[in-house]
Amino acid sequence: QVQLVESGGGLVQAGGSLTLSCTASGLTFSNYAMSWFRQAPGKEREFVGGIDRTFDNTYYSDSVKGRFTISRDNAKNTISLQMSSLKPEDTAVYYCAGSRRITYNARDMLYWGKGTLVTVSS
């Protein structure tokens, strides 16, 4: 069946950098838009960024724009989230998800990973 597996989470100091990865299996990866969401304690899950079926159409929330970069490697069925200038407010569980089209609505996601924790200390 379809599986999305995130990796790369950890503890980092404010101002530092971290890169997350998500590897997909069980689907035709290039047919899906892929997104990153995050959820902090006591808050709703929020859209972080997404990438469509091409390699240069990306979308970001205002809170991470200019600091985070999404990329995908269809040959490896992988997407990455490069994070820099991290802030304590970025602390959350980060999830990757797949959809038929690019969208920032969690309800449109067809597949979800189990998440990876990013903790930014101050």
Describe the structure.
Strands 2, 4, 5, 6, 9, 10 and 11 form a seven-stranded mixed β-sheet that branches. A four-stranded antiparallel β-sheet has the order 1-3-8-7, with no helix packed on it. By secondary structure, the protein is mainly β. Helix content is 0%, strand content 50%. It has no helices and eleven strands. The N and C termini lie far apart (40 Å). The radius of gyration is 13 Å and the shape is globular. The mean pLDDT is 95. It has strands spanning 3-7, 10-13, 18-25, 33-39, 46-51, 58-60, 68-73, 78-83, 92-99, 111-112, 116-121.
The first-to-last residue Cα distance is: 40 Å
Mean pLDDT: 95
The number of E-state strands comes to 11
Number of helices: 0
Low-confidence stretches: none
The percent of residues in helical segments reads under 10%
How much of the sequence lies in strands comes to over 45%
Rg is 13 Å
What structural class is derived from the secondary structure elements?
A: mainly beta
Shape: globular
The helix/strand order is EEEEEEEEEEE
Main sheet characteristics: 7 strands, mixed
How are the SSEs placed, and which strands pair?
Layout: E1 3-7, E2 10-13, E3 18-25, E4 33-39, E5 46-51, E6 58-60, E7 68-73, E8 78-83, E9 92-99, E10 111-112, E11 116-121
Parallel strand pairs: 2-11
Antiparallel strand pairs: 1-3, 3-8, 4-5, 4-9, 5-6, 7-8, 9-10, 9-11
Please give a handful of descriptors for the protein shown.
7-stranded mixed sheet; 122 residues; mainly beta; globular
